Amino acid sequence: MIAVLFPDKSHSVLHSSWFKFVKDFDECGKYSWGSACLAYLYREMCKACRVGCMSVGGCSLILAVWTYYRIPRLAPKSEIAPSYPYATRFAQRGMEYFSSPNTFLDGYRFILDHMVQGDFLWRPYEEYPRRTQREARAWSATTYIICFHIVEMHHADRVRLQFGFTQNIPQPPRCLGDHHLVTKNDVKDCNYRDVNINENNEWKGRKNLIMTASTQGFIDISDDQVLENLPTISPQQLARFMNDGPSHQNDELSSDDSPQRQPPPNIEQPLVQ
């Protein structure tokens, strides 16, 4: 189980720190394996974005199944009716790959670049048989997810459609730069309960952060007036951003491609809200 949920890039080596969590199967079921698996996968995906990286660790099976159900054009065709667990649908014989890119990288890029409204399914499991999960409502909480020294954000507020809510303009994402600098060796002699105390406390109170229909501090994107007042981005500004990175993200966004930057705000924004 550990080798499937938390593989490294080699997919053949397992860290010994996991063994103590599976020696007692009665206690094993009390852990939040799903959130830890996501945190581990998010961190590995961050590492995979680095220049020169040729592979990715983490549970790529979750990422693949998530993609297949939400972007059907990328998925192999199957005549098997979906059933729980949904990943088994793509592990059967008789899959048809001719209409999917399969291992053709340019094919994936072409489909993603030419997606239109309706090509992405926000709630693909609604019509399928599914089990009632006790913690299902807590999945919509915007909070930290933790795996040992790894701290990532579960930004459910940015995918509200996935939970059946109207999507709003979310608050800026939390900065986790300092957390990404911490390695396992940095805290190898620490009790993980004493590491990231604030983040752990927020995670424990995740049921108080469950998504609701009305959330304070958000603007409904269905408001035409808000959309009309949004700034426009010229092709020159977009090309400059793609070439130089986010250093120009505070540039004034106007149609005349003005190089003038917006002055910095007077109020300091906390790294963790």
Notes on the protein architecture:
- The longest helix is centred in the N-terminal third of the chain and has 16 residues, at 33-48.
- The protein has 8 helices and 4 strands; from the N terminus they run αααααβββαβαα.
- With 273 residues, the chain is mainly α.
- The two termini are 35 Å apart.
- The radius of gyration is 21 Å and the shape is globular.
- The protein has helices at 2-5, 25-28, 33-48, 60-70, 105-113, 197-204, 224-229, 235-244; strands at residues 143-147, 150-154, 168-169, 219-220.
Compute the number of strand runs.
4
Mean pLDDT rating: 77
| Widest beta sheet: strand line-up | 1-2
Major β-sheet profile: 2 strands, antiparallel
| Helix content class | 10-25%
Structural class: mainly alpha
Q: Quickly count the helices.
A: 8
Any idea what the radius of gyration is? Answer: 21 Å
- Summarize the helix and strand pattern as letters: HHHHHEEEHEHH
Descriptive labels:
single chain, 273 residues, mainly alpha, two-stranded antiparallel ribbon, disordered C terminus
Task: Give the gist of this structure.
With 273 residues, this protein is mostly helical. The protein has helices spanning 2-5, 25-28, 33-48, 60-70, 105-113, 197-204, 224-229, 235-244; strands at residues 143-147, 150-154, 168-169, 219-220. It is 25% helix and 5% strand.
SSE arrangement:
Blueprint: H1 2-5, H2 25-28, H3 33-48, H4 60-70, H5 105-113, E1 143-147, E2 150-154, E3 168-169, H6 197-204, E4 219-220, H7 224-229, H8 235-244
